[in-house]
TrEMBL record:
Domain of life: Bacteria
InterPro entries: GIY-YIG_endonuc (IPR000305), GIY-YIG_endonuc_sf (IPR035901), GIY-YIG_UvrC_Cho (IPR047296), RuvA_2-like (IPR010994), UVR_dom_sf (IPR036876), UvrABC_protein_C (IPR050066), UvrC (IPR004791), UvrC_RNase_H_dom (IPR001162)
Taxonomic lineage from the root: Bacteria, Pseudomonadati, Bacteroidota, Flavobacteriia, Flavobacteriales
Protein's name in the database: UvrABC system protein C
GO biological process: nucleotide-excision repair; SOS response
Record function comment: The UvrABC repair system catalyzes the recognition and processing of DNA lesions. UvrC both incises the 5' and 3' sides of the lesion. The N-terminal half is responsible for the 3' incision and the C-terminal half is responsible for the 5' incision.
Any Pfam family the entry gives: UvrC_RNaseH
Subcellular location: Cytoplasm
Amino acid sequence: MQPNAAMTTNSDISLQLQTLPQLPGVYQYFDKDQKLLYVGKAKNLKKRVASYFNKTHDNARLNVLVRKIVTIKHIVVKTETDALLLENNLIKNLQPRYNILLRDDKTYPWICIKNERFPRVFSTRNFIKDGSEYFGPYTSGRTLHTLLDLIRELYPLRNCNYDLSVQNIKNEKYKVCLEYHIGNCLGPCEAHETEEEYLRKIQHIRQLLKGNFKENLKEFKQLMLQYASEMKFEEAQAVKEKMQILENYQAKSTIVNPKITNVDVFSIVSDETMAYINFLQIAHGAVVRSHTLELKKRLNETDDELLVLGIVEIRERFRLLTKEVIVPFEIDLGEKISVTVPKLGDKKQLLELSERNARYYRLDQLKQIKIVDPDRHTNRVMAQMKTDLRLNKEPRHIECFDNSNIQGTNPVAACVVFKDGKPSKKDYRHFNIKTVEGPNDFASMEEVVFRRYRRLLDEGEPLPDLIIIDGGKGQLGAALKSLDILGLRGKIAIIGIAKRLEELFYPGDSVPLYLDKKSETLKIIQHLRNEAHRFGITFHRNQRSKNAIDSGLTTIPGIGPKTMEKLMIQFKSIKRLGETPEEEIVKLVGKSKAEKVVNFFKELQSKKE
């Protein structure tokens, strides 16, 4: 690639836009102090850069970026693929403030087949261009060590660093060590193993590291049959055990049809602030490498842009030369790379496996953030709720209402309060319904919403950012009547949630909103709804118990409120109290009061008879 570089320095943005070419390339934005703000790539530089300045953007960060731009520089390249590669390099080297932040920039280990006579096979983090072969890098240390253990179990190799030249071996310069005596090495240092035999094992190891188990199994099978035909049954059994080890490893590794070979799979999972791109490398039907790249969003980047950037970064990092990639949607990676978007079959299963890996990686990261940096977790969840629920601001203070009445008795309501996505139990409130006769949920909801926010207004307390009504359109409409009377409609966001299908209703919108069943936003709303239901039911039961106590015990002469409460806590019901022997009641309240209680129930019984 031989880029044609150009530079504009005039502070007049409109003039700079007019001079941009309609060619593929990379553009750079600088502020008044000539600090680099952003690097981007474009198929058409003129159109792409102009799009930043000809409209107001929804993303606040993007609007701030545009206001800071004073100078635009650009580099013209031959193809969009060249632009992708150049953009990736510039972002990594210059780290512009508003670009996606590439994470996980670690030095990963490789498996090296050393360029020497009787090659050693070992792990290393140093990539030395000395003719040695390197397989990897491996992002999972567990995978690397499992492979090395498998190789050592199948193929005894030397691990010493002796110079095993023909002359040195002929002169008997070295002696076999303990590794030879315990069977981990066949002793090439004393010519117990020929170079030809040793290199045959190295060839098998190469195939294994490439994910091709077929040739190794075929070779072992032939060797086992040969030993069996020669009546060497112990040797045949040893080879059979190696075949079983290899087959077990292959069974754990193979995911799809072995005919699928040399394919890279990429998927993406993103939220408001981060994107996670999972990569699977497939060889001979087996997953030979998996890695998840974490990208921190700086502007309003789309999943298409993020996935392309991630693929370029991963292919460069792992030196991938694959001609086919499997992705979840159509993207442009240039003419040399075939892009497949599978709908069915084994390739679709691979894509789903990659997506599952990306989701689990994201969940793991979120759990860690929640523990290590709870404020960052809260900010992310609040930003996600704002987007999911189409709100004007983050719902830091949420209140949820629920009615409770069973068979029309003791109608009550509950209001629970969440702050920053967590219950604030000291702010919970319950209400006895005062103005409604009989079981009328709509009128009850109208009453409690009015009473709650009339009081907050009178006391100058802060209003919530979001109100959630446990119920469908009818309950939501009743709550809105109260907000209208108080002049709060439009000042507080309000939604209703219907239980059966978890439908979210908005004022004036007949079509409900459905959230992903696994989304954090829906889980918080369900938590609110369940808390309101629990709090309301508990209060309702207490009220019924209190009424039962009042109706059953207030007529007993000489029994005060504290004694009544003690009796009901112990015996739970009037019926059970009446059936309790006098000596049991004496133990609780003394002989004098126990006689009064027992006489009361005797009189009731005699009246019934």
